[in-house]
């Protein structure tokens, strides 16, 4: 049960504010924002998604720089409220095409319409984009960025939001396109977020892939869709020989997975196909988790050496261990250095375009960003550190670990594939566009010193 | 042409409110448009309405436009209508007179041909929240509930709850709950069913504080027919409604094991749902159903583990935190089940600290012989982390693992390495840990002392760490050559030491050191005592004085007081009582898990909601855990304030309840008041006559209330058969709990206690022994003066019929209250008499 729901901008302005039950004071948005902003004295830590101030529970999720907040006074399932907030954000995106402060401000009346139907007196009613269509009458007002960017580039995947990557599609489910007729198309994105921890000698300590198959359908007439995955896919970790060589084994073994409601698994056990009638809007068809060893796309070697009483040298080497036809984008390598570091001189192997280095003095961190890394490339960064005073302890304990973020389109670390995407056809002439895309992103990609 | 939509030359940005003048502006524009039927007027209105709503959103009071808004609302444009509804809903409450203006058009819209308009109008009508308008609600709501369109019905059902909040009596008089119950069991639309369930839960929960009937109705929601009806349709429900149903199923108590397995098989695939809320709600059902079957319960942990881990990694960071908190709870309850999954609990560098903290605790809990090495190695990585709070937590985690493991060799080495890391906070945390470690494993003193001895006290600034270092200096002064001199220099800087804790430790350490190395310490001791006596801090002063007098009295006695032979600590006290933990587990899939507190600690009584079904059973679970069924007394730690809190709160609730309740009729209060008076006069306890005098009247009342056949009551009342109890009755806490939940309340009475009885309460367990001598056995007790709470049970002799009693005593007011639940309700009055007479003898023997 929810008492109020509001959406705040990054600066704490109310964009939408809906009071369902009136048992929480009106100033809750202010209370909330102050609390979140000054969670503890130094402002270092983030406020947890759920907290209680004076008997009022505040739930919030961050989506696209906006805070979606719910308040109440009763003890409810936190995951239900958080999931609901997340879903409301997605719903709004489905209708507006783009979710950001601007689009929300321009369309707040439509958002109120949605909120009225999604929640009544604090009780969740429906979050189905499709069902809601018949209750929504406002036409979305498109904002400029809603113009479709060209397909393909991975820059489309919104950065800085590691778990819920946005997709290219910025088309509203209700608005008509300039041409009048809607384009029949369906998007399937296989998004994998990988976490790898290397120890100081480059050996993999832990690795995990969290994947999701995301779908967004603009098909009319609700045709049934069949989605075939790798035939040798298996689920549940059987007892494997502990050190399976990932190069030689071909089977994809997932630890566990879950599916969207609309998915029928009747033939999943036999031929690994999912059948579903996709609802409107964006939704995850399947989420999966894999801890089976896999080939990490990047190898990182980092060295830190004292070269004098007030000097040290860092060498970071990054090897792109994937096919040269593939590029990694927006690569960023970071490393904390000892806190007495006051000057850093960088030396790059070969000056390539879009390579920048920086020493963040405030938090004593090296940053090396590379716009594009071609498969098979090997890049090295040397940095000479100067300290303001002598180090007492072990220099290795003062620095590191090296962490890395990147996007690799057309790459799927787990080797899970959508073998085919079949749309039950209404007529021969009817051939909707199908887009199946892959992207691998770094979630926590760390090499220790 | 349309009249020029008078657009002022102002920035159209709705985010820049200019305040009062804008409102006046809007008013005049609205007036111009009010009667206009010209084409294009609707568009102009839309723009204006949008501005009004945008002002409303950012908190500007636009309620003064109410009249104009209503005038403009005569339109067929649905977008306009919706905006107008939103506005009216927001401001009707502060404008009750004007709200009357809207009733007309809303009522008309409730009869519109378009079901959507009917629904919208009905929703707005119910959202006005103006008390004097409720009469206009009943009619439209009644027809809304019967509407042939499911959308209107879903709206109407929630409308009933809204009405209930405006005027409960109107809602009940119209018999809406009964209608909802019928709808819930018959409506083809699952959202209608789900809303009925929400509505009934809310209404009956609120009603049940004053009406036993409502409490019974609420219980019927978890009855087998309802549960099965809902379960059989579970897949038709929306995911949110599924959560609602599952939450209800978790409260259901199946009659046998095969039923449990049926339910679990039916819900198995819900664990594969992409929605984390559904997965958690399903997990709760599984966990709660299998509580009584230890081995199956364990399998449930295994079964839900993978889906929960997937939720942690697949969901949004927020959802992931919510699920992780639940995993944390499970890990803490059954660490051994997760011991091979420890790698999942490794921290990722980019996780927020609240997630890292949970993971560190989980890593600590799952550490066992086989994985400790890996875990401690990982934790040591975090100790060097740039995130200092987490680095500290990691060191503490290493220490905790050391304290719970038998093989601590490797860990001690790591801890000692921390001491040498030369980072202030690392040294400090490590010192505190080494101290605790030495208290548990004195055999490590040689190794540790060697390292600790090298630490300069000047580098240790944090009070906790400094106190730990000083403690070690005192305790192991015989092994640390410098100890007396280090202490001496610390005493010299007495005035600069701001922490009283450190000064206290310093006094004790100097004393200890003195008894081991008198000549070297004498000077430090003298200076320390002098400084202590002059200290402004009361505790420090007192301790110095105490030591001084002790030394004056006899040095050997002082030594035996300060330096007695010590026993190693085997287990350090847990910060949270197992009772609290069990209670949190009962409230699985709620905020209690996130806050790590049971709900009564963070919600007001009236906001508990439906999670509090097993309210009074909370402190029973402790017994279930102990598994020691026959032991009558379970003493709850005396300092458990939380329990006290729950009792006082409950008493308040009860007081309120009995005021409004139908059956605590005046005759009742009178009876107890008289008896109270007679007691205080004559020091006489309840005589058996007064007890039986009460009996007929009350059992009639109860029969009435419970809707029992009158003849049953009549047969029982004239001559209550002498009731005898089985002195050797046995009941295990699990069954008690189950029964308490299942049985309706059959009797509740208030009465006073004799002064002797109150006095005798001070002796722990006296009451329990006393009642046991009357064949009434205690199954759980708790509380702190002046509030005590007991659960008793008794069994009718030569019969399986069980009586369950909850007894609340307030020793300062000598008031007590009993609640009786019985298998055989017809004899509960007789039992109550027996119980009270037994209680009245308490203290007099």
UniProtKB/TrEMBL annotation, chain A:
Keywords: Membrane, Protein transport, Transport
Localization per record: Endomembrane system
GO cellular component, one term: endomembrane system
Family in the record: Belongs to the adaptor complexes medium subunit family.
Keyword Lipid biosynthesis part of the UniProt annotation: no
Keyword Hydrolase: no
Name of one Pfam family that matches: Adap_comp_sub
InterPro entries assigned: Adaptor_comp_med_subunit, AP2_Mu_C_sf, Clathrin_mu, Longin-like_dom_sf, MHD
GO biological process: intracellular protein transport; vesicle-mediated transport
Originating gene: LOC107493121
Official protein name in the record: AP-4 complex subunit mu isoform X1
Positions of the MHD domain: 183-448
PANTHER family (UniProt xref): AP COMPLEX SUBUNIT MU (PTHR10529)
Organism: Arachis duranensis (Wild peanut)
Gene3D superfamilies for the chain: 3.30.450.60, Mu homology domain, subdomain B
Main location: membrane
From TrEMBL, chain B:
Region (Disordered): 1-26, 650-669
Transmembrane segment boundaries: none
Keywords in alphabetical order: Membrane, Protein transport, Transport
GO MF entries: clathrin binding
Family matches, as Gene3D superfamilies: Leucine-rich Repeat Variant, TATA-Binding Protein
Keyword presence, Signal: no
Alphabetical list of InterPro entries matching this protein: AP_beta, AP_complex_bsu_1_2_4, ARM-like, ARM-type_fold, B-adaptin_app_sub_C, Clathrin/coatomer_adapt-like_N, Coatomer/calthrin_app_sub_C, TBP_dom_sf
GO biological process, one term: vesicle-mediated transport
Protein task: Subunit of clathrin-associated adaptor protein complex that plays a role in protein sorting in the late-Golgi/trans-Golgi network (TGN) and/or endosomes. The AP complexes mediate both the recruitment of clathrin to membranes and the recognition of sorting signals within the cytosolic tails of transmembrane cargo molecules.
Name by which UniProt lists this protein: Beta-adaptin-like protein
Organism: Arachis duranensis
Gene name of the record: LOC107470936
């Amino acid at each position: 049960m929810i008492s109020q729901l509001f959406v705040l901008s990054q600066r704490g302005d109310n964009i939408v504010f809906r009071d369902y039950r009136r048992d929480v004071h009106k100033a809750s948005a202010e209370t909330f924002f102050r609390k979140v902003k000054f969670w503890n004295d130094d402002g270092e830590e983030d406020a947890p998604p759920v907290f209680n101030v004076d008997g009022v529970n505040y739930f919030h999720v961050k989506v696209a720089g906006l805070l979606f907040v719910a308040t109440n006074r009763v003890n409810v399932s936190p995951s239900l409220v958080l999931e609901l907030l997340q879903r409301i954000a997605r719903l709004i995106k489905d209708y507006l095409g783009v979710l950001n402060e601007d689009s929300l401000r321009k369309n707040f009346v439509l958002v109120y319409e949605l909120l009225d139907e999604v929640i009544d007196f604090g009780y969740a009613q429906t979050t189905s984009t499709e069902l809601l269509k018949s209750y929504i009458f406002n036409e979305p007002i498109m904002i400029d960025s809603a113009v479709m960017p060209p397909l393909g580039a991975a820059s489309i995947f919104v950065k800085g939001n590691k778990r819920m990557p946005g997709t290219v599609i910025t088309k509203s489910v209700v608005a008509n396109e300039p041409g009048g007729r809607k384009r029949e198309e369906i998007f399937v994105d296989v998004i994998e977020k990988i976490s790898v921890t290397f120890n100081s000698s480059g050996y993999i300590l832990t690795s995990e892939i969290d994947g999701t198959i995301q779908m967004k359908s603009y098909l009319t007439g609700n045709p049934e869709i069949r989605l075939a995955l790798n035939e040798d896919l298996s689920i549940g970790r059987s007892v494997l020989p502990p050190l399976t060589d990932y190069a030689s084994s071909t089977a994809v073994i997932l630890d566990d997975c879950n599916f969207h409601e609309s998915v029928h698994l009747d033939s999943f056990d036999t031929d690994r196909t999912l059948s579903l009638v996709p609802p409107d809007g964006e939704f995850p068809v399947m989420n999966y988790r894999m801890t089976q060893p896999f080939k990490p796309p990047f190898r990182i070697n980092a060295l830190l050496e004292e070269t004098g009483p007030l000097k040290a040298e860092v060498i970071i080497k990054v090897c792109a261990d994937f096919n040269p036809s593939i590029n990694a984008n927006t690569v960023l390598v970071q490393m904390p250095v000892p806190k007495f570091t006051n000057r850093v001189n960088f030396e790059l192997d070969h000056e390539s375009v879009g390579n920048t280095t920086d020493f963040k003095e405030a938090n004593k961190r090296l940053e090396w960003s590379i716009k594009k890394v071609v498969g098979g490339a090997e890049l090295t960064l040397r940095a000479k550190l100067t300290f303001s005073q002598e180090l007492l302890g072990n220099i290795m304990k003062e620095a590191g670990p090296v962490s890395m973020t990147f996007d690799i389109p057309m790459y799927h670390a787990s080797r899970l594939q959508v073998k085919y995407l079949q749309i039950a056809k209404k007529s021969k002439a009817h051939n909707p566009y199908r887009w199946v895309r892959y992207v691998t992103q770094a979630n926590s990609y760390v090499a220790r010193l | 042409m349309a009249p020029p939509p008078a657009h002022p030359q102002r920035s159209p940005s709705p985010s820049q409110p200019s305040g009062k003048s804008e409102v006046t502006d809007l008013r005049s524009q609205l007036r111009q448009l009010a009667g206009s039927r010209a084409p294009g007027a609707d568009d102009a209105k839309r723009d204006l309405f949008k501005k009004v709503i945008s002002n409303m959103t950012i908190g500007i009071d636009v309620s003064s436009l109410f009249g104009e808004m209503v005038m403009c609302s005569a339109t067929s444009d649905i977008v306009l209508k919706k905006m107008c509804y939103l506005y009216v809903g927001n401001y009707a409450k502060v404008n009750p007179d004007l709200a009357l203006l809207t009733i007309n058009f809303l009522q008309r819209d409730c009869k519109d041909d378009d079901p959507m308009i009917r629904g919208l109008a009905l929703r707005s009508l119910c959202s006005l929240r103006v008390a004097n308008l409720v009469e206009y609600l009943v009619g439209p709501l009644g027809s809304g509930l019967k509407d042939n369109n499911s959308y209107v019905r879903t709206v109407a059902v929630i409308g009933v709850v809204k009405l209930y909040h405006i005027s409960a009596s109107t809602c009940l008089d119209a018999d809406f709950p009964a209608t909802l119950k019928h709808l819930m069991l018959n409506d083809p639309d699952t959202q209608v069913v789900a809303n009925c369930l929400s509505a009934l839960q809310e209404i009956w929960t609120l009603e049940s504080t004053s009406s036993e009937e409502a409490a019974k109705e609420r219980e019927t929601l978890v009855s087998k027919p309802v549960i099965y009806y809902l379960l059989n349709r579970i897949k038709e429900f929306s995911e949110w409604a599924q959560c609602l149903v599952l939450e209800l199923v978790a409260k259901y108590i199946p009659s046998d094991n095969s039923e449990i397995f049926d339910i679990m098989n039916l819900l198995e695939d819900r664990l594969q749902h992409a929605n984390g809320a559904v997965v958690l709600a399903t997990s709760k059902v599984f966990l709660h159903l299998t509580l009584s079957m230890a081995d199956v319960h364990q399998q449930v942990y295994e079964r839900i583990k993978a889906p929960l881990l997937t939720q942690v990694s697949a969901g949004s960071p927020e959802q992931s935190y919510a699920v992780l908190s639940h995993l944390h709870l499970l890990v803490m309850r059954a660490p051994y089940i997760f011991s091979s999954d420890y790698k999942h609990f490794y921290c990722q560098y980019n996780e927020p600290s609240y997630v890292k903290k949970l993971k560190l605790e989980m890593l600590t809990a799952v550490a066992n012989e086989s994985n400790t090495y890996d875990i401690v190695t990982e934790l040591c990585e975090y100790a060097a982390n740039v995130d200092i709070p987490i680095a500290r937590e990691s060191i503490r985690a290493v220490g905790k693992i050391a304290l719970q493991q038998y093989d601590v060799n490797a860990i001690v080495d790591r801890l000692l390495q921390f001491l040498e890391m030369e980072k202030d906070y690392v040294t400090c945390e490590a010192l505190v840990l080494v101290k605790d470690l030495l208290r548990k494993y004195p055999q490590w003193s040689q190794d540790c002392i060697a390292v600790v001895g090298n630490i300069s006290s000047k580098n240790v600034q944090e009070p906790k760490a400094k106190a730990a270092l000083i403690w070690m200096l005192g305790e192991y002064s015989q092994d640390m050559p410098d100890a007396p001199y280090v202490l001496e220099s610390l005493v010299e800087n007495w005035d600069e030491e701001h922490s009283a804790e450190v000064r206290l430790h310093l006094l004790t350490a100097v004393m200890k050191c003195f008894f081991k190395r008198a000549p070297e310490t004498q000077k430090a001791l003298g200076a320390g005592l002098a400084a202590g006596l002059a200290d402004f801090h009361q505790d420090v002063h007192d301790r110095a004085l105490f030591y001084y007098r002790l030394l004056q009295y006899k040095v050997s006695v002082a030594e035996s007081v300060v330096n007695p032979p010590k026993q190693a600590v085997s287990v350090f006290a847990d910060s949270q009582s197992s009772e609290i933990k069990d209670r949190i587990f009962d409230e699985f899939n709620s905020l209690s898990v996130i806050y790590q507190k049971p709900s009564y600690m963070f919600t007001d009584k009236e906001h508990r909601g439906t999670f509090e079904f097993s309210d009074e059973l909370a402190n029973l679970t402790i017994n279930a855990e102990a598994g020691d069924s026959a032991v009558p007394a379970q003493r709850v730690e005396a300092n458990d304030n939380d329990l006290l809190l729950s009792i006082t709160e409950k008493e308040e609730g009860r007081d309120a309840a009995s005021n409004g309740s139908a059956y605590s009729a005046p005759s009742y209060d009178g009876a107890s008041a008289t008896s109270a008076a007679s007691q205080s006069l004559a020091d006489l306890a309840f005589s058996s006559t007064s007890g039986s005098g009460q009996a007929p009247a009350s059992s009639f009342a109860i029969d009435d209330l419970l809707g029992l056949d009158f003849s049953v009551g009549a047969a029982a009342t004239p001559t209550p058969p002498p009731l005898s109890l089985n002195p050797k009755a046995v009941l295990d806490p699990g069954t008690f709990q189950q029964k308490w939940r299942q049985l309706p309340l059959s009797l509740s009475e208030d009465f006073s206690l004799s002064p002797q009885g109150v006095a005798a309460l001070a002796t722990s367990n006296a009451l329990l022994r006393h009642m046991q001598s009357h064949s009434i056995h205690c199954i759980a007790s708790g509380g702190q003066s002046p509030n005590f709470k007991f659960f008793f049970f008794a069994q009718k002799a030569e019969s399986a019929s069980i009586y369950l009693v909850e007894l609340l005593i307030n020793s300062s007011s000598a008031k007590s209250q009993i609640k009786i639940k019985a298998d055989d309700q017809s004899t509960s009055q007789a039992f109550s008499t027996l119980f009270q007479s037994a209680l009245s003898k308490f203290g007099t023997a």
